[in-house]
Amino acid sequence: MDRKTIAVKGAGIGVASQLVNLVAKFVVRTFAIRYLGMELLGLDSVLIDIVSMLSLAEMGLTSAMLFRLYKPIIDDDKKRVSVLMASYRMIYHIIAAVITVLGIIIFFFLPYIVKNISITWEQIYFAYVLQLICSISSYILAYQRILLNADQKKHLCLLVDMIATVIFSALKVFVIVLLHSYLFYLVLNIFQIIIANIVLKIYSFRTYSYIDSKEKCDKADLRVILNDTKEVLGGKIAGYIYSGTDNMIISIVLGTGIVGILSNYKYISSAMKGIVNSTMSTIQPLIGNYLNSDATKSSSFRTLLRYTFIRYLIAGISTCAFTTISDSFVQIWAKSDAVVM
Q1: Residue 41 and residue 258 in contact, taking contact as beta carbons nearer than 8 Å
Q2: Which of 115, 135, 160, 258 has the fewest CB within 10 Å, making it most exposed?
Q3: Interatomic CA distance for residues 27 and 70, integer angstroms
Q4: How would you class 100 by CB atoms within 10 Å of its CB: exposed for 0-12, middle for 13-18, buried for 19 or more?
Q5: Spatial CB neighbours of 318, under 8 Å, sequence gap ≥ 6
Q6: Residue pLDDT, tens place only, 181-230
Q7: Alpha carbon distance 42, 129 (integer Å)
Q8: pLDDT of residue 5
Q9: What does the mean pLDDT of the chain come to?
Q10: Which residues contact 273 (CB under 8 A, 6 or more apart)?
Q11: Maximum Cα–Cα distance for the chain, whole Å?
Q12: Residue pair 258/117 in contact by the 8 Å Cβ criterion
């Protein structure tokens, strides 16, 4: 199967996976609105934003590492791939350690962020710790995903994540309806990430058996990756400031409870954005491999223009749909007590 066919297949699986995940998460959120209430949803949204801020410690390293893997995979340079993966494993562990330290520091500033909420501080602190563990575990266990993505096998990651989402969404609904427990819901999030990554780790070990887990990282590779990171760091920071700080700001100024109401709108926009990104991200390895081939600069530039135009077209259509029907949809879905009029 040629790489273009794989890319098209991956895009199809990406859309299907995103739709299934969207339906599963929509069902879970619907039950959460009914049984947990807006305050807990607001707290959840604020904590997610805080953890996302900590993830800036990643600094765009994943994009830089992914780019460096394309060439040795095309050349079937197994030794080089093994050395790079050793460096990536160390980088991900360092990122996890940095997030842990920063997370502990922010723990003491939570009272300045979470305000005007009736939930006890014991529950808030416990929920924050669980969210932090969820983020840390994703870095400790998920570094093998980067190899699958570079080798145009991201559709396998999507399939595993989709199955895990369906199974754990059913468990989350059970916990929400019968136990009315937000904390158990967070524990299930952690297990979902761990199990999905373990499955992918086992697959990677069997598929890429030539990778030596005892391989030492190359300091030169670390310097090159850090240098590449400068090219994407600004975009990562700008992206977070643009889309990842609103819940925290609203919580500080207006209170955490109001975040639960407004997060319904953000949930819809994020879902639409996720569908677009999951479709286009499966094509990125194809473009990366193409740019590392013998293609001319003019040909590479034309490919970039086409890719950018497709993203622009999809984004325009999605924006029109969101601005037209979002308010009516939220009124029907979340009911009048959870709608911004």
Answers
A1: no
A2: 115
A3: 38
A4: middle
A5: 272, 273, 275, 276
A6: 899 999 999 999 999 999 988 888 888 888 776 777 767 777 777 776 76
A7: 17
A8: 64
A9: 80
A10: 318
A11: 62
A12: no
Q: Tell me, what DSSP letter sits at residue 215?
A: P
Number of domains comprising the chain: 1
CA distances from 147 to 73, 86, 120 (A): 9, 11, 43
Residue 159's domain spans which residues? Answer: 3-338
Using CA atoms, how far apart are residues 200 and 142, in angstroms rounded to an integer? 8
Token pair recorded at residue 53? 């801020």
Tokens in use for 21?
A: 């995940």
Structure-token match 């925290």, residue found: 248
Closest Cα partner for 173 from 40, 29, 19? 29
Question: What's the CA angle centered on 196, arms 15 and 58, to 5 degrees?
Answer: 85
Residue 341 and residue 246: Cα distance in Å, rounded? 19
Q: What are the residues whose beta carbons fall under 8 Å from the beta carbon of 230, sequence distance 6 or more?
A: none
CA–CA separation, 113 and 118 (whole Å): 14
Q: Where are the alpha helices (DSSP H) in the chain?
A: 3-35, 38-54, 61-74, 78-107, 110-113, 121-141, 145-150, 154-174, 182-207, 219-243, 246-254, 256-281, 284-291, 297-334
Measured between alpha carbons, how far is 80 from 82 in angstroms, rounded to an integer? 5
CA pair distance 252, 199, nearest whole angstrom: 40
CA 88, CA 229: separation in Å to the nearest integer?
13
Give the pair of three-digit tokens for residue 52: 């996302």
Report the amino acid identity of residue 44: D
Contact 151, 3 (CB under 8 A): no
Distance CA 267, CA 333 (A): 12
